[in-house]
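Technical annex, item 7. During the second reporting period the consortium partners agreed on a shared format for inverse folding records so that results from different sites could be compared directly. Each record opens with the tokenized structure and is followed by the designed sequence. A conforming record, contributed by the partner at site C, is shown below for reference.
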């Protein structure tokens, strides 16, 4: 099995041994046929791609160079449930970035966030948040407001030195 997803391959030259069957999978946009998944791992992206199909449920963009998540960045993706933005350079995550989505699992680990993004827009659907290995130093009293279904919260490897007394009371 050879997966050349995320590669800028135009021509493939190789010999096929008759004793060794080979399956070559070329997925131009890294969206599996019939799948609801969009994947661009280690693709050198500096911003969100513009070719993400609107019907996707899962978007995986780990190990890129994305630094900003702007207003309503994921709003067009009404079926979005899983979003992996781990291991990028995200410093800014707009409060309305996830508005209108049905995000259940958000992975923003290994970025450069100094505070948790406001996730109130997905409070009724978000069950898992991984914000491991960022630059978060404070947990404010409003950080978890409205996150009524949150079950898994990972904040390890941050420099958290202050947690508001009522920070966890909304969850």
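Designed sequence (site C submission):
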């Amino acid at each position: 099995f050879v997966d050349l997803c995320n590669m800028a391959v135009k021509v493939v030259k190789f010999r096929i041994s008759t004793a060794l069957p080979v399956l070559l999978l070329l997925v131009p946009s890294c969206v599996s046929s019939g799948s609801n998944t969009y994947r661009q791992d280690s693709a050198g992206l500096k911003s969100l791609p513009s070719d993400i199909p609107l019907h996707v449920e899962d978007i995986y963009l780990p190990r890129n160079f994305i630094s900003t998540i702007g207003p309503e960045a994921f709003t067009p993706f009404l079926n979005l449930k899983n979003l992996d933005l781990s291991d990028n350079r995200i410093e800014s995550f707009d409060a309305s970035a996830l508005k209108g989505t049905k995000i259940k699992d958000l992975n923003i680990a290994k970025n450069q966030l100094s505070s948790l993004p406001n996730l109130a827009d997905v409070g009724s659907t978000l069950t898992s948040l991984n914000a491991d290995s960022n630059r978060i130093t404070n947990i404010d009293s409003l950080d978890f407001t409205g996150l009524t279904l949150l079950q898994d919260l990972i904040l390890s490897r941050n420099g958290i030195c202050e947690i508001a007394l009522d920070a966890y009371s909304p969850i």
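The first strand starts at residue 2 and ends at 3. The two ends are 44 Å apart (CA to CA). All partners now use this format for quarterly exchanges.
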